[in-house]
Amino acid sequence: MSDHNNIESENISSNHDTTEFREFEEGDNVNTNNDDKDTSSSNNNQENQENLETITSESTNQTEEDQYAHDFDNLEKMILSTGIRVGTPVKTKYMTPFIVRANPEGLYILDISKTLARIDVAAKFVGRTNISRVAITSAREYGKTPVEKFCELTGATGLFGRFMPGTFTNPSLPNYMEPEIVIVTDPQADQQAVLEATRAGVPVIAISNSDNVTSKVDLVIPANNRGRKALATIYWLLAREVLKKQGNIKSDKEMRLSIDDFETKLVEEIS
């Protein structure tokens, strides 16, 4: 694997010092003849004004943090409802670090915190790249619409259906391309794309389920890569983070498309 393998997440923590605010009341009667008292009063006023500004700033920061935590909790609940962390009855040694337990039905459950962390790392990586040279493949039918919407929002290049051999390795082909990053919906279904990207020295990001083999993958995003809602959610989250890293949006409210827009519609839903 090339030096592109060294993809690391960043852990950022912030601590806020606590500042006490002392009330200050100025008396109605001021002795204008006492310069020392006037100077002291002025200094106290200035000190307390600074303390008040500090308190106000910290209070605002705390309010923003509380709002972020609230929004994150709501988002996480919504994400969990899409089945994004529900794996298969099989696990590989490659995916074991991303599995927290098995549910009563025997399906392995993926660690959602690691899923979100890997999406953030992937977005940082993609955000530093020429987005038009990020190729995304999906041999899975349920991955087509999510990939299309991701490309629509970000400008990445989508490759759908059967991957044409030689796309990344044979310059004589009319559809030949030289991507800087390859993202695959399933490292098994998109195996040819993974192999060619590896041969070309291109880093591979893969949405991987509990039963996937990821020996040729540079960055694993552990998630259910078979469900309609799960794939829509993964690509929506990734698109959102990429747009934020690029500076194109600042909040979720600026996302033009919703998770529902990313979801592949069934025939009966369309008719």
List the helices and strands and how they pair.
Blueprint lengths: L34 H46 L18 E4 L5 E3 L1 H16 L6 E5 L5 H11 L2 E4 L20 E4 L6 H9 L4 E5 L10 E4 L5 H19 L12 H4 L4 H4 L1
Parallel strand pairs: 3-4, 3-5, 5-6, 6-7
Antiparallel strand pairs: 1-2
Helix pairs in contact: 2-5, 3-5
Describe the structure.
The protein is of the alpha/beta class and 271 residues long. The chain folds into two domains: 53 residues; 189 residues, Glucose-6-phosphate isomerase like protein, domain 1 (Rossmann fold). The protein has a five-stranded parallel beta sheet, sandwiched between helices. Strand 1 and strand 2 form a beta hairpin. Helix 2 crosses helix 5 and helix 3 runs parallel beside helix 5. The longest helix is centred in the N-terminal third of the chain and has 46 residues.
Salient structural properties:
7 strands; 7 helices; 271 residues; 2 domains; 5-stranded parallel beta sheet; disordered N terminus; single chain
> What is the CA-CA span between the terminal residues?
47 Å
Structural class from helices and strands? alpha/beta
The major beta sheet can be summarized as: 5 strands, parallel
Count of structural domains: 2
Number of strands: 7
CATH class call of the largest domain? Alpha Beta
Multimeric state: single chain
- The share of residues in extended strands comes to 5-15%
At CATH level 2, the architecture of the largest domain is 3-Layer(aba) Sandwich
Give me the number of helical elements.
Answer: 7
CATH fold group of the largest domain: Rossmann fold
CATH superfamily of the largest domain: Glucose-6-phosphate isomerase like protein, domain 1
Can you list the strand order of the major beta sheet?
A: 4-3-5-6-7
Question: What percent of the residues sit in helical stretches (DSSP H or I)?
Answer: 40-55%
User: What is the gyration radius calculated from CA atoms?
Assistant: 26 Å
Task: State the order of secondary-structure elements, H for helix, E for strand.
Answer: HEEHEHEEHEEHHH
Mean pLDDT: 80
Low-confidence stretches: 1-35
Give the overall shape: globular
